[in-house]
Protein backbone atom coordinates (compact mmCIF):
# COMPACT_ATOMS: atom_id res chain seq x y z
CA UNK A 1 0.00 0.00 0.00
CA UNK A 2 1.55 3.32 -1.08
CA UNK A 3 0.96 6.86 0.16
CA UNK A 4 -0.81 9.52 -1.89
CA UNK A 5 0.21 13.04 -0.91
CA UNK A 6 -2.66 15.53 -0.83
CA UNK A 7 -1.85 18.93 -2.31
CA UNK A 8 -4.61 21.40 -1.47
CA UNK A 9 -5.40 24.29 -3.85
CA UNK A 10 -8.36 25.82 -1.97
CA UNK A 11 -6.49 28.96 -0.89
CA UNK A 12 -4.75 29.59 -4.20
CA UNK A 13 -8.02 28.93 -6.06
CA UNK A 14 -10.09 31.35 -3.98
CA UNK A 15 -8.82 34.38 -5.90
CA UNK A 16 -10.08 32.81 -9.15
CA UNK A 17 -13.63 32.33 -7.88
CA UNK A 18 -15.75 35.21 -9.12
CA UNK A 19 -18.18 35.24 -6.21
CA UNK A 20 -15.67 35.72 -3.40
CA UNK A 21 -12.04 36.32 -2.51
CA UNK A 22 -10.69 35.50 0.98
CA UNK A 23 -8.86 38.08 3.07
CA UNK A 24 -5.63 37.33 4.94
CA UNK A 25 -7.35 36.53 8.25
CA UNK A 26 -9.68 34.05 6.56
CA UNK A 27 -6.82 32.38 4.69
CA UNK A 28 -4.76 31.96 7.86
CA UNK A 29 -7.78 30.49 9.64
CA UNK A 30 -8.46 28.05 6.80
CA UNK A 31 -4.78 27.10 6.47
CA UNK A 32 -4.74 26.09 10.15
CA UNK A 33 -7.81 23.94 9.58
CA UNK A 34 -6.25 22.34 6.48
CA UNK A 35 -3.25 21.35 8.59
CA UNK A 36 -5.63 19.90 11.17
CA UNK A 37 -7.29 17.99 8.34
CA UNK A 38 -3.94 16.38 7.51
CA UNK A 39 -3.19 18.04 4.16
CA UNK A 40 0.42 17.42 3.11
CA UNK A 41 0.97 20.52 0.95
CA UNK A 42 -0.99 23.78 1.16
CA UNK A 43 -0.68 26.09 -1.83
CA UNK A 44 -1.40 29.68 -0.80
CA UNK A 45 -1.01 31.62 -4.03
CA UNK A 46 1.72 33.31 -6.06
CA UNK A 47 3.97 35.49 -3.89
CA UNK A 48 4.89 37.77 -6.80
CA UNK A 49 1.29 38.41 -7.88
CA UNK A 50 0.53 41.02 -5.26
CA UNK A 51 1.54 42.40 -1.89
CA UNK A 52 -1.52 40.68 -0.40
CA UNK A 53 -0.43 37.24 -1.67
CA UNK A 54 3.10 37.87 -0.41
CA UNK A 55 1.94 38.91 3.07
CA UNK A 56 -0.55 36.01 3.24
CA UNK A 57 2.17 33.47 2.48
CA UNK A 58 4.43 35.03 5.12
CA UNK A 59 1.64 35.03 7.72
CA UNK A 60 0.66 31.41 7.10
CA UNK A 61 4.30 30.29 7.09
CA UNK A 62 4.60 31.47 10.70
CA UNK A 63 1.64 29.46 12.06
CA UNK A 64 1.86 26.13 10.20
CA UNK A 65 4.09 23.49 11.76
CA UNK A 66 3.71 20.24 9.82
CA UNK A 67 2.16 20.85 6.41
CA UNK A 68 4.39 22.08 3.58
CA UNK A 69 3.61 25.65 2.49
CA UNK A 70 3.79 26.26 -1.25
CA UNK A 71 4.00 29.35 -3.43
CA UNK A 72 3.36 29.41 -7.14
CA UNK A 73 5.94 31.05 -9.37
CA UNK A 74 6.35 31.71 -13.06
CA UNK A 75 9.49 30.66 -14.91
CA UNK A 76 11.64 33.65 -14.03
CA UNK A 77 14.24 34.42 -11.37
CA UNK A 78 12.34 37.34 -9.85
CA UNK A 79 9.32 35.18 -9.04
CA UNK A 80 11.60 32.59 -7.44
CA UNK A 81 13.34 35.23 -5.32
CA UNK A 82 10.03 36.70 -4.12
CA UNK A 83 8.67 33.24 -3.28
CA UNK A 84 11.85 32.44 -1.33
CA UNK A 85 11.51 35.59 0.77
CA UNK A 86 7.80 34.98 1.43
CA UNK A 87 8.46 31.39 2.57
CA UNK A 88 11.50 32.08 4.77
CA UNK A 89 9.63 31.37 8.02
CA UNK A 90 8.01 28.14 6.84
CA UNK A 91 9.14 24.92 8.54
CA UNK A 92 8.55 23.07 5.28
CA UNK A 93 8.52 25.03 2.03
CA UNK A 94 7.93 24.30 -1.65
CA UNK A 95 7.94 26.31 -4.84
CA UNK A 96 5.60 25.35 -7.67
CA UNK A 97 7.05 26.46 -11.02
CA UNK A 98 4.27 26.92 -13.56
CA UNK A 99 5.07 26.30 -17.23
CA UNK A 100 2.68 27.30 -20.02
CA UNK A 101 3.76 25.51 -23.19
CA UNK A 102 1.01 25.49 -25.82
CA UNK A 103 2.01 28.72 -27.58
CA UNK A 104 5.60 27.49 -28.10
CA UNK A 105 5.24 23.98 -29.46
CA UNK A 106 4.97 24.72 -33.19
CA UNK A 107 8.24 26.57 -33.66
CA UNK A 108 11.55 24.68 -33.30
CA UNK A 109 13.50 27.79 -32.29
CA UNK A 110 10.87 28.72 -29.73
CA UNK A 111 10.92 25.15 -28.39
CA UNK A 112 14.69 25.16 -27.90
CA UNK A 113 14.60 28.57 -26.20
CA UNK A 114 11.88 27.38 -23.87
CA UNK A 115 13.76 24.20 -22.96
CA UNK A 116 16.81 26.34 -22.15
CA UNK A 117 14.66 28.64 -20.02
CA UNK A 118 13.28 25.65 -18.08
CA UNK A 119 16.78 24.29 -17.44
CA UNK A 120 18.08 27.65 -16.22
CA UNK A 121 15.03 28.48 -14.10
CA UNK A 122 14.70 25.13 -12.33
CA UNK A 123 18.47 25.07 -11.71
CA UNK A 124 18.24 28.56 -10.20
CA UNK A 125 15.34 27.51 -7.98
CA UNK A 126 17.32 24.48 -6.79
CA UNK A 127 19.86 26.80 -5.19
CA UNK A 128 17.10 28.17 -2.95
CA UNK A 129 14.62 25.30 -2.50
CA UNK A 130 15.05 21.63 -1.66
CA UNK A 131 11.43 20.95 -2.66
CA UNK A 132 10.53 21.97 -6.23
CA UNK A 133 7.34 21.14 -8.07
CA UNK A 134 7.23 21.63 -11.82
CA UNK A 135 3.74 22.03 -13.28
CA UNK A 136 2.78 21.76 -16.94
CA UNK A 137 -0.28 24.01 -17.03
CA UNK A 138 -1.60 22.81 -20.39
CA UNK A 139 -0.02 19.36 -20.33
CA UNK A 140 -2.93 17.50 -21.90
CA UNK A 141 -3.22 19.85 -24.88
CA UNK A 142 0.40 19.85 -26.13
CA UNK A 143 2.51 17.40 -28.12
CA UNK A 144 3.25 14.47 -25.84
CA UNK A 145 6.84 13.98 -27.01
CA UNK A 146 7.59 17.64 -26.36
CA UNK A 147 6.03 17.30 -22.91
CA UNK A 148 8.36 14.38 -22.21
CA UNK A 149 11.40 16.47 -23.18
CA UNK A 150 10.28 19.24 -20.85
CA UNK A 151 9.71 16.83 -17.96
CA UNK A 152 13.11 15.17 -18.42
CA UNK A 153 14.92 18.51 -18.41
CA UNK A 154 12.98 19.70 -15.34
CA UNK A 155 13.90 16.53 -13.43
CA UNK A 156 17.55 16.73 -14.43
CA UNK A 157 17.61 20.36 -13.26
CA UNK A 158 16.30 19.44 -9.81
CA UNK A 159 12.50 19.15 -9.78
CA UNK A 160 11.19 16.73 -7.13
CA UNK A 161 7.57 16.61 -8.31
CA UNK A 162 6.14 16.70 -11.83
CA UNK A 163 2.56 17.91 -11.96
CA UNK A 164 0.32 17.19 -14.97
CA UNK A 165 -2.47 19.76 -15.27
CA UNK A 166 -5.59 19.24 -17.36
CA UNK A 167 -6.42 22.95 -17.44
CA UNK A 168 -9.25 22.52 -19.95
CA UNK A 169 -10.97 19.77 -17.98
CA UNK A 170 -11.22 17.96 -21.30
CA UNK A 171 -9.33 14.70 -20.95
CA UNK A 172 -11.16 11.42 -20.27
CA UNK A 173 -9.99 8.95 -17.56
CA UNK A 174 -8.60 6.33 -19.96
CA UNK A 175 -6.81 9.04 -21.97
CA UNK A 176 -5.15 10.36 -18.80
CA UNK A 177 -4.04 6.85 -17.87
CA UNK A 178 -2.46 6.36 -21.31
CA UNK A 179 -0.84 9.81 -21.07
CA UNK A 180 0.81 9.01 -17.74
CA UNK A 181 1.88 5.53 -18.86
CA UNK A 182 3.55 7.07 -21.92
CA UNK A 183 5.48 9.54 -19.76
CA UNK A 184 6.56 6.78 -17.38
CA UNK A 185 7.87 4.71 -20.29
CA UNK A 186 9.46 7.58 -22.22
CA UNK A 187 11.12 9.70 -19.52
CA UNK A 188 14.16 7.84 -18.19
CA UNK A 189 14.46 9.49 -14.76
CA UNK A 190 10.74 9.83 -13.98
CA UNK A 191 10.81 7.12 -11.31
CA UNK A 192 13.09 9.32 -9.19
CA UNK A 193 10.37 11.91 -8.58
CA UNK A 194 6.74 12.17 -7.50
CA UNK A 195 4.15 12.35 -10.27
CA UNK A 196 1.08 14.48 -9.59
CA UNK A 197 -2.16 15.26 -11.41
CA UNK A 198 -4.26 18.42 -11.19
CA UNK A 199 -7.66 17.89 -12.80
CA UNK A 200 -10.23 20.54 -13.67
CA UNK A 201 -13.90 19.65 -13.61
CA UNK A 202 -15.29 21.28 -16.77
CA UNK A 203 -16.78 17.97 -17.98
CA UNK A 204 -17.36 16.54 -14.51
CA UNK A 205 -14.44 14.10 -14.63
CA UNK A 206 -11.97 15.68 -12.20
CA UNK A 207 -12.51 13.21 -9.36
CA UNK A 208 -12.68 10.17 -11.67
CA UNK A 209 -9.49 11.21 -13.44
CA UNK A 210 -7.68 11.77 -10.14
CA UNK A 211 -8.77 8.44 -8.66
CA UNK A 212 -7.87 6.41 -11.71
CA UNK A 213 -4.42 8.02 -11.77
CA UNK A 214 -3.69 6.47 -8.37
CA UNK A 215 -4.00 3.02 -9.97
CA UNK A 216 -0.95 3.63 -12.16
CA UNK A 217 1.51 4.89 -9.60
CA UNK A 218 0.67 8.57 -9.10
CA UNK A 219 2.16 9.86 -5.82
CA UNK A 220 0.26 13.14 -5.39
CA UNK A 221 -3.24 14.47 -6.07
CA UNK A 222 -4.05 18.16 -6.30
CA UNK A 223 -7.56 19.02 -5.16
CA UNK A 224 -9.63 21.54 -3.22
CA UNK A 225 -12.28 21.60 -0.52
CA UNK A 226 -15.78 21.42 -2.08
CA UNK A 227 -14.07 21.39 -5.47
CA UNK A 228 -13.46 25.16 -5.18
CA UNK A 229 -11.76 26.61 -8.25
CA UNK A 230 -12.13 28.59 -11.45
CA UNK A 231 -14.86 27.72 -13.95
CA UNK A 232 -16.38 24.38 -12.89
CA UNK A 233 -13.76 23.94 -10.16
CA UNK A 234 -11.10 21.36 -9.36
CA UNK A 235 -11.24 17.79 -8.11
CA UNK A 236 -13.10 17.75 -4.77
CA UNK A 237 -10.84 16.64 -1.91
CA UNK A 238 -13.70 15.19 0.12
CA UNK A 239 -14.89 12.96 -2.73
CA UNK A 240 -11.39 11.71 -3.48
CA UNK A 241 -10.70 10.85 0.17
CA UNK A 242 -14.07 9.16 0.63
CA UNK A 243 -13.34 6.85 -2.30
CA UNK A 244 -9.76 6.10 -1.25
CA UNK A 245 -10.86 5.38 2.34
CA UNK A 246 -13.98 3.38 1.51
CA UNK A 247 -12.34 1.33 -1.25
CA UNK A 248 -8.85 0.69 0.09
CA UNK A 249 -9.27 -2.84 -1.22
CA UNK A 250 -9.48 -1.40 -4.74
CA UNK A 251 -7.06 1.54 -4.68
CA UNK A 252 -4.47 0.00 -2.33
CA UNK A 253 -3.21 3.39 -1.09
CA UNK A 254 -3.60 5.73 1.88
CA UNK A 255 -3.37 9.43 2.74
CA UNK A 256 -2.70 11.45 5.90
CA UNK A 257 -6.18 13.00 5.82
CA UNK A 258 -8.20 12.78 9.05
CA UNK A 259 -11.66 11.86 7.80
CA UNK A 260 -13.59 13.36 10.73
CA UNK A 261 -12.17 16.79 9.88
CA UNK A 262 -13.57 16.81 6.34
CA UNK A 263 -17.06 18.04 7.22
CA UNK A 264 -15.89 20.88 9.53
CA UNK A 265 -13.41 21.98 6.86
CA UNK A 266 -16.08 21.90 4.16
CA UNK A 267 -18.41 23.98 6.33
CA UNK A 268 -15.65 26.46 7.10
CA UNK A 269 -15.09 27.01 3.36
CA UNK A 270 -18.85 27.49 2.91
CA UNK A 271 -18.91 30.02 5.74
CA UNK A 272 -15.91 32.01 4.54
CA UNK A 273 -16.78 32.07 0.84
CA UNK A 274 -20.55 32.32 1.37
CA UNK A 275 -20.87 29.60 -1.26
CA UNK A 276 -23.32 26.89 -0.13
CA UNK A 277 -23.04 23.29 -1.29
CA UNK A 278 -25.87 21.24 -2.78
CA UNK A 279 -27.87 19.05 -0.40
CA UNK A 280 -27.02 16.01 -2.54
CA UNK A 281 -23.28 16.84 -2.78
CA UNK A 282 -21.36 13.60 -2.24
CA UNK A 283 -19.82 13.15 1.21
CA UNK A 284 -20.62 16.59 2.68
CA UNK A 285 -24.12 17.32 1.35
CA UNK A 286 -26.87 17.28 3.99
CA UNK A 287 -28.60 14.28 2.45
CA UNK A 288 -25.39 12.26 2.62
CA UNK A 289 -24.68 12.68 6.33
CA UNK A 290 -26.93 10.09 7.99
CA UNK A 291 -24.26 8.67 10.29
CA UNK A 292 -23.18 12.12 11.48
CA UNK A 293 -26.72 13.41 11.78
CA UNK A 294 -27.68 10.79 14.34
CA UNK A 295 -24.68 11.66 16.51
CA UNK A 296 -25.73 15.29 16.72
CA UNK A 297 -29.42 14.74 17.41
CA UNK A 298 -30.93 14.66 13.93
CA UNK A 299 -34.03 12.80 12.93
CA UNK A 300 -32.60 10.46 10.27
CA UNK A 301 -35.65 10.50 8.03
CA UNK A 302 -36.36 14.23 7.95
CA UNK A 303 -32.85 15.67 8.23
CA UNK A 304 -33.83 18.11 10.96
CA UNK A 305 -32.21 19.13 14.21
CA UNK A 306 -33.90 18.08 17.43
CA UNK A 307 -34.44 21.21 19.51
CA UNK A 308 -34.20 19.21 22.73
CA UNK A 309 -30.39 19.28 22.51
CA UNK A 310 -28.86 20.95 25.57
CA UNK A 311 -26.66 24.03 25.25
CA UNK A 312 -23.37 22.11 25.28
CA UNK A 313 -24.58 19.63 22.63
CA UNK A 314 -25.87 22.50 20.51
CA UNK A 315 -22.57 24.42 20.70
CA UNK A 316 -20.68 21.24 19.79
CA UNK A 317 -22.98 20.74 16.82
CA UNK A 318 -22.47 24.31 15.55
CA UNK A 319 -18.70 23.88 15.95
CA UNK A 320 -18.84 20.65 13.91
CA UNK A 321 -20.25 22.73 11.05
CA UNK A 322 -16.98 24.68 10.97
CA UNK A 323 -18.48 27.76 12.66
CA UNK A 324 -16.10 29.77 14.85
CA UNK A 325 -17.64 29.98 18.33
CA UNK A 326 -16.40 33.57 18.65
CA UNK A 327 -18.18 34.64 15.47
CA UNK A 328 -21.75 33.95 16.58
CA UNK A 329 -23.94 34.80 19.57
CA UNK A 330 -25.33 31.49 20.79
CA UNK A 331 -27.87 33.16 23.09
CA UNK A 332 -29.44 35.04 20.19
CA UNK A 333 -29.39 31.97 17.97
CA UNK A 334 -31.09 29.80 20.59
CA UNK A 335 -33.62 32.55 21.28
CA UNK A 336 -34.55 32.76 17.59
CA UNK A 337 -34.90 28.97 17.44
CA UNK A 338 -37.23 28.96 20.44
CA UNK A 339 -39.38 31.63 18.82
CA UNK A 340 -40.16 29.22 15.96
CA UNK A 341 -42.48 27.38 18.32
CA UNK A 342 -42.19 23.88 16.82
CA UNK A 343 -40.27 20.85 18.04
CA UNK A 344 -37.89 20.51 15.11
CA UNK A 345 -35.69 22.85 13.14
CA UNK A 346 -34.77 22.30 9.50
CA UNK A 347 -31.13 22.66 8.58
CA UNK A 348 -32.02 25.32 6.02
CA UNK A 349 -33.63 27.49 8.68
CA UNK A 350 -30.74 26.89 11.09
CA UNK A 351 -28.29 27.96 8.39
CA UNK A 352 -30.30 31.17 7.81
CA UNK A 353 -30.19 31.99 11.52
CA UNK A 354 -26.46 31.29 11.77
CA UNK A 355 -25.68 33.28 8.61
CA UNK A 356 -27.62 36.24 10.00
CA UNK A 357 -25.63 36.02 13.25
CA UNK A 358 -22.36 35.89 11.30
CA UNK A 359 -23.35 38.96 9.28
CA UNK A 360 -24.18 40.89 12.47
CA UNK A 361 -20.82 39.87 13.94
CA UNK A 362 -18.96 41.14 10.84
CA UNK A 363 -20.85 44.45 11.00
CA UNK A 364 -19.89 44.93 14.66
CA UNK A 365 -16.21 44.29 13.83
CA UNK A 366 -16.27 46.89 11.03
CA UNK A 367 -17.90 49.44 13.33
Low-confidence stretches: 290-303
Number of strands: 13
Largest sheet: 8 strands, parallel, barrel
Using the coordinates shown, work out and report the CATH topology of the largest domain. Answer: TIM Barrel
- The secondary-structure class comes to alpha/beta
Q: What Rg, in angstroms, do the CA atoms define?
A: 22 Å
How much strand? 15-25%
SSE run: EEHHEHEHEHEHEHEHEHHEHHEEHHEH
Could you estimate the helical fraction of the residues in percent? Answer: 40-55%
Mean pLDDT: 87
How many distinct helices? Answer: 15
Q: What is the spatial order of strands in the main beta sheet?
A: 2-3-4-5-6-7-8-9
- Determine and state the CATH class of the largest domain: Alpha Beta
Separation, N- and C-terminal Cα atoms: 54 Å
